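Can you please make up a whole protein chain along with its backbone structure tokens because I've never seen that pairing?
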Amino acid sequence: MTTHLVWFRHDLRITDHSALHAACQNADAKVIALYIATPGQWQAHGMAPRQATFLLQNLQALQQSLAAKGIPLFYQQCEDFHQAVETVDAFCKKQHVSHLFYHYQYEINEREQDRALEAKLHGQVVCHGFDDSVLLAPGSLVTGKQEMYKVFTPFRKAFTQRLLEMEITCFPAPKKRANVDVGKLDALTPLRLSSTGG
């Protein structure tokens, strides 16, 4: 059986989620979801404990929403983004994943993580990345000389023109997967950070 894995990151929702929508287009595929917590990475970037609590609450809501659609949410925890690449790779092997669906992230560490993962999975798992949280992908709007715009007015005109040409779609939540029962949901592990910085 074909297994599609949706890797959730900052996009903890089931509506208007292009990666989840794409993963669910094959009615015969088994669809599963994964979230990887990286508390060491978060703490290095100043995440407060209350942010971790809020994140956990959103993960619990996401887990319930996905379960109602017949999609189990798996939870893994590792120290940082480097270990997350190994975690996704190992998870894909264990679950016999054929296709990975995820939203691009645009920060430096996240982009490096995505490149490393795509290289790691090359030839084993088909990766499907989608733009999210932006109207246009970073670097996709350039001058005729293929350079970044340095003057606002030409940039605004080009940006507006591109938006008018785009087909903007809001994807609905997926339909319930046929004959799938996710069973008893595992409790999500609390995201423990230092009490400082909260």
Q: What stands out?
A: Residues 81 and 92 are 16 Å apart (CA to CA). The first strand starts at residue 3 and ends at 8.
